Amino acid sequence: MTVLSDLPAPAATAAGPAGPEQHRTTRLGLLGPLRLCRQGTEIAVPAPKHRALLALLAINANRPVQVDRIIGELWQDREPKTARKTLQGYVWRLRTLLGPGALHTTGNGYELRAAADAIDAVRFGMLAERGRAELLAGRPEQAARLLRPALGLWRGPALADVPVAPGAYAYASRLEEERLTATEWLIEAELALGRHAEAVPVLRELVVGQPLREGLRAQLMLALFRSGRQAEALAEYGELRALLREEQGLDPGRAVSELQARILAGDAGLENG
Question: What is the crossing angle of helices 48-59 and 83-98, to 10°?
């Protein structure tokens, strides 16, 4: 399954104001190492604390983030006495990098204002949800056309070069789960389109990284069965069951167990979903 990397930016939505005209060409990347681009030029953010602050503000784009929360995220339990003054210096530096009008002081906090299509994580979520809606409506081709570019936005683990902080860690973990879920949606669409053989190597690689994820394992079993590889499909179930029993003392869930039974019986109904 080819993953497309070029994404036509969708129109801004209620997720945030478009901001000044010059910021329509400012983009932030969270789906991988932190990335800041202005007018097509990537702007380096070399200092770890600057990256951590920019990430926190981007995660909460178009919402004020209180100074106390920022300090807690940046320094956690090692807050220096000069934290507030140091933070002001960080904010000044980010304003320089972002350009005028992007970073606002709001009461006792700061707010990064950005259009909905300016942050890759937001674009990913918008496209993925539209793809899911098409899948649920029985339109797998349209779903795949949305889910491929959504997943193509990823450049590596979310916030890969941002120092670990509670808020950023939780957000990155949620994004990674959404990435896996969107991947399952795309594979479901590909299987519905009859691309079983192409899906097998992709699914094998995914299962190596997520050996206990039953949804991926079930998709691999189905893709193998539809490719005429019934024995391999059953072997995948056996491996899943052994791993679950060893690590969690559990058996596979009902859905994947029923799939195993249908594959074992050579159920022709699985050929066409």
Answer: 70
Q: Does the residue 136 lie in any domain?
A: no
Encoded tokens for 247:
């690590």
Of the candidates 246, 244, 240, 209, the one whose C-alpha atom is nearest the C-alpha of residue 224 is 240
Residue 216 has which token pair?
């991926």
Q: What is the pLDDT of residues 89-127, one digit of tens each?
A: 999 999 999 988 899 999 899 999 998 789 999 999 999
Q: Residue 272 contacts by C-beta under 8 Å, 6 or more apart in sequence? A: none
**Tokens found for residue 53:** 């602050």
Closest CA to 115 of 15, 43, 29: 15
Last residue of a domain, one of 84, 118, 152: 118
Domain residue limits at 31: 21-118
Give the C-alpha separation, 234 to 231, whole Å: 5
